[in-house]
């Protein structure tokens, strides 16, 4: 049990996630690590069975060989559970399914990850740049991005 | 028999009512809005990339420049996020000072909201009243941090300086005059017949849509969901204060206005309680001069900013600079519902919707 | 009388003699510049923190109206002063250029704040231009982050001097 999620919730999580996910705890959150193929199913289950109806934050981190995608989930108005779902994609094939059909708030947040980090999302309704101009080349938040003079 | 073409009207990015550089492309079928496509990025200052080449302390002024209308709030969120990452504690007096300054910033932001809503709908006088009252808060920010608008007042482990003597009479007189100011806004702005016609029943956001799209803050509360992070996920010493969470019934523009006016009242009450119970003591804990959080440690800290849930996602790589800093900006997420609530309305309703969603472009574009 | 000193051409004894009888000898250019300098019509444009101080300068405490500059116009075709308040980002640059070109001459540009002057704290980012003068000629730079309303007035009064003296 960690400071925020009770044993019962963590047990339920293990049942939902099955053996496809790795569950790690720290003082602040319970982390569920899955592969991109299981992401959609997990998200749907978390929403339906655990009541996690609020995707607060979604972003990407450039970890060198891989990009890590991080999703912070809460339940409104209950707020008893605090979960983080993490998944990784390789740098060469930086693509994973969009969860905007389950959490509409992921729409623009995924666009931002595409825009700044270069990770694309399949079956996204409108995957275009959101913060940078359309004709900008490169993805600036990548660690190997070089600013043009 | 007759067919009509859709035509595009561009609102912004240079427009008196777009709160900075917001560009809304309205597809119109005559008077009716068929779609409102939002284009962001006109104020994108690459803050997250800059964070990777600044130390944690050097980023504090950048955090204040995110939501510049209520600059103590994003600074507070950032300071608390780094404190979580490093495991730093904050002395009691500093916690109370932080809450007083944060709530003053919230009142300042909401006052500007009311004024800019009035001026966006054409009532120029409203802005001047709100700017006048906001000046008193600017004075208080200047007394404490030295800066009127961008008060980078928070430090890791506390605040940069104690409240000066002249602050206390100033804040007392402000709190005494606050009910009169609210009455004035209600009489002049909220109660105005034209504003009511422009705002009642306009831009209705249902609670389900609000949660689905991640809308938080006064916009969510106006749709009827009493979710306030100061109560739901308390940070600092907010748990010690009694305050109500005002909600609306319809989720329209008028509700978004009245919820914020009531929140000004509640913030005033929190400040009063904090002043009464504030202990003496240190204002900053001993923090290392150079912060180097443990490698691989990450944190997501969220606060109830004036616009909604402002979150900081920090990942450390063991050096003195963040490996990744992501700002979960409430204005970015709140603006997602603008097309949703504008479809089927009229062109001028887009202006009312933008004004009542209260976006801060510095935050939404970072 | 103030008018005499501002408008009069320098000079001859005859001019001084006429002035004693309330006849001012001047040039049309001087009269136009005198009027222009005392009634800038700024464009309502701003991105970021600096326009908030610009708005505060229009409020009752600082009162930009006492200088004659309170007429903020929404359309660039009716404005003659472009106050670049805030950073110019990559996406905004073509927009600002277009707005500048839409303003009729004579027009002036005041760069308000560190971001408009040099890129400010965001200079080493990938999306902020290193100052408004990379797009067009800037007449006055007002440093500050953000500059106080008094600093903005100082900048506008410096511009007033510049315009009055025809140095544009």
Please give a structural write-up.
By secondary structure, chain A is of the alpha/beta class. Chain A has helices at 7-17, 39-50, 106-117; strands at 22-25, 30-34, 54-62, 66-74, 83-90, 95-97, 120-122. In chain A, helix 3 (106-117) links the parallel strand 6 (95-97) and strand 7 (120-122). Chain B has 366 residues and is of the alpha+beta class. Chain B has one domain (47-329): Cytochrome-c3 Hydrogenase, chain B (Orthogonal Bundle). Chain B is built from 15 helices and 8 strands. In chain B, strand 6 (298-304) and strand 7 (309-316) form a beta hairpin. The model of chain B has no long low-confidence stretch (mean pLDDT 91). Chain C has helices at residues 2-7, 13-20, 28-37, 50-58, 93-102, 114-118, 149-164, and strands at residues 81-85, 108-112, 140-142. Chain C has a 3-stranded parallel beta sheet. In chain C, helix 3 (28-37) packs antiparallel against helix 7 (149-164) and helix 4 packs across helix 7 (149-164).
CATH architecture assignment name of the largest domain in chain C: 3-Layer(aba) Sandwich
Radius of gyration of chain C, Cα only, in angstroms? Answer: 18 Å
**Mean of residue pLDDT of chain C?**
88
Count the helices of chain C. How many?
Answer: 7
Helix content of chain B: 40-55%
Spatial separation of the terminal alpha carbons of chain C: 27 Å
Shape of chain C: elongated
What is the string of SSEs of chain B from the N terminus onward?
EEEHHHHHEEHHHHHHEEEHHHH
- Give the CATH topology of the largest domain in chain C: Rossmann fold
Cα distance spanning the termini of chain B: 49 Å
Mean pLDDT metric of chain B: 91
Helix content of chain C: 25-40%
């Amino acid at each position: 049990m960690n400071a925020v999620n009770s044993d019962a919730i963590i047990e339920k999580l293990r049942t939902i996630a099955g053996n496809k996910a790795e569950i790690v705890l720290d003082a602040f959150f319970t982390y569920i690590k899955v592969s991109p193929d299981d992401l959609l199913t997990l998200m749907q289950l978390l929403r339906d069975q655990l009541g996690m109806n609020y995707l607060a934050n979604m972003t990407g981190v450039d970890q060198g060989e891989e990009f890590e995608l991080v999703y912070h989930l809460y339940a409104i108005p209950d707020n008893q559970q605090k979960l983080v779902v993490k998944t990784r994609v390789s740098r060469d094939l930086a693509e994973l399914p969009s969860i905007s059909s389950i959490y509409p708030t992921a729409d623009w947040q995924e666009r931002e990850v595409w825009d700044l980090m270069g990770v694309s999302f399949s079956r996204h309704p409108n995957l275009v740049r959101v913060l940078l101009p359309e004709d900008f080349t490169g993805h600036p938040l990548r660690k190997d991005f070089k600013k043009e003079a | 028999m007759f067919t009509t073409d859709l035509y595009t009207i561009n609102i912004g990015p240079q427009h008196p009512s777009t709160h900075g550089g917001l560009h809304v492309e309205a597809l119109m079928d005559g008077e009716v809005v068929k779609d409102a496509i939002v284009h962001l990025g006109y104020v994108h200052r690459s803050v997250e990339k800059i964070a990777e080449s600044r130390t944690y302390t050097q980023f504090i002024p950048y955090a204040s420049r995110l939501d510049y209308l209520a600059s103590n709030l994003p600074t507070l969120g950032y300071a608390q996020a780094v404190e979580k990452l490093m495991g730093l504690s904050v002395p009691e007096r500093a916690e109370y000072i932080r809450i007083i300054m944060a709530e003053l910033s919230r009142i300042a932001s909401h006052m500007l909201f009311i004024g800019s809503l009035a001026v966006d709908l054409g009532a120029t006088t409203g802005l001047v009243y709100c700017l006048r009252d906001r000046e008193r808060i600017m004075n208080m920010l200047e007394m404490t941090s030295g800066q009127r608008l961008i008060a980078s007042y928070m430090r890791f482990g506390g605040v940069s300086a104690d409240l000066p003597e002249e602050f206390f009479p100033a804040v007392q007189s402000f709190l005494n005059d606050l009910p009169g100011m609210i009455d004035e806004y209600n009489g002049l702005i909220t109660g105005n017949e034209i504003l009511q016609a422009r705002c009642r029943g306009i831009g209705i956001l249902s609670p389900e849509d609000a949660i689905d799209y991640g809308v938080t803050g006064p916009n969510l509360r106006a749709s009827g969901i009493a979710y306030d992070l100061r109560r739901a996920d308390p940070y600092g010493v907010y748990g010690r204060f009694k305050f109500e969470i005002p909600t609306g019934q319809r989720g329209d523009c008028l509700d978004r206005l009245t919820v914020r006016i009531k929140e000004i009242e509640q913030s005033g009450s929190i400040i009063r309680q904090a002043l009464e119970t504030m202990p003496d003591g240190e204002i900053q804990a001993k923090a290392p001069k150079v912060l180097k959080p443990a490698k691989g440690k990450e944190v997501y800290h969220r606060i109830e900013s004036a616009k909604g849930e402002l979150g900081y996602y920090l990942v450390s790589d063991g050096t003195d600079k963040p490996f990744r800093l992501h700002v979960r900006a409430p204005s970015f997420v709140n603006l997602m519902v603008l097309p949703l609530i504008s479809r089927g309305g009229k062109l001028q309703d887009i202006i009312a919707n933008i004004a009542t969603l209260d976006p801060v472009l510095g935050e939404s574009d970072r | 009388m103030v008018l005499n000193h501002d408008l009069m051409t320098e000079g001859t004894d005859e001019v001084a003699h006429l002035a004693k009888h309330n006849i001012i000898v001047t040039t049309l250019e001087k009269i136009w510049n005198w009027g222009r300098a005392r009634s800038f019509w700024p464009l309502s444009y701003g991105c970021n923190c600096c326009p908030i101080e610009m708005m505060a300068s229009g409020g009752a405490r600082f009162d930009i109206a006492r200088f004659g500059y309170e007429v903020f116009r929404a359309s660039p075709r009716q404005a003659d002063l472009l106050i670049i308040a805030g950073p110019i980002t990559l996406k905004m640059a073509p927009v600002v250029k277009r707005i500048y070109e839409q303003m009729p001459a004579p027009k002036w540009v005041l760069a308000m704040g560190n971001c408009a002057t040099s890129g400010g704290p965001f200079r080493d980012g990938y999306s902020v231009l290193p100052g408004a003068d990379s797009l067009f000629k800037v007449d006055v730079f007002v440093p500050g982050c953000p500059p106080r309303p008094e600093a903005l007035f100082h900048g506008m009064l410096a511009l007033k001097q510049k315009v009055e003296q025809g140095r544009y």
